[in-house]
Each structure stands twice: as C-alpha cells, then as structure tokens.
C-alpha cells in the first residue's frame, strides 16, 4: 500500500511539472492562468496524499486551506484581467 501511494506521489509531481510547463509556454494569459490553477489543484492533491502516507491527518486541513486560497486567488486574478483588458 505504501509503495502504491509513493508511486501516486511521483505521478502527481510529474503532472505538476507538466502543468508548470503549460503555464510557461501557453499562448494566452487565460491559458497561463489555467496552467497555474491546475498546478494549485494538483498541489492540494499532493498535500493530501503525502499527509495520508505519513499518517498526519492535519495535512488535510492544510490542503483545504490551500484549496481555498487557490480558488480566491484565481478569482482575483481573473477579475483583474477582466477589468484591465484592452478595449478592441
């Protein structure tokens, strides 16, 4: 069971690297925001799995707080770009 969870952690880290690559090489601002949001979501998943793997249930609380911060941050960034977009 522990080996499976360790493999899951490694897979999540690979997906996080792919999300960062998407965020850096995306053609538009919204695609970059999507990549950063995906990275934040996978970070929440990674924190939860590592907490379970280490036997530390308080990591789940940290993951939930990080998810809320990620959500509020994404809404704030999207609102900023909504109101500062150049008028065509």
What order do the helices and strands follow? HHH
On the 0-100 scale, what is the average pLDDT?
90
Q: Quick one: how many beta strands?
A: 0
User: CA-to-CA gap between the ends?
Assistant: 56 Å
* Proportion of residues in extended strands: under 5%
Rg: 16 Å
Our count of domains comes out at 1
Backbone structural class: mainly alpha
CATH architecture descriptor? Orthogonal Bundle
Oligomer: single chain
Main β-sheet description:
none
Helix content: over 70%
For this structure, what is the CATH class?
Mainly Alpha
Overall geometric form: elongated
CATH topology: Helix Hairpins
Please report the number of helical segments: 3
Unreliable spans are none
Structure in words:
With 88 residues, this protein is mainly alpha-helical. The protein has one domain: Helix Hairpins, CATH 1.10.287. Helices cover 86% and strands 0% of the residues. It has three helices and no strands. It is elongated, with a radius of gyration of 16 Å. The mean pLDDT is 90.
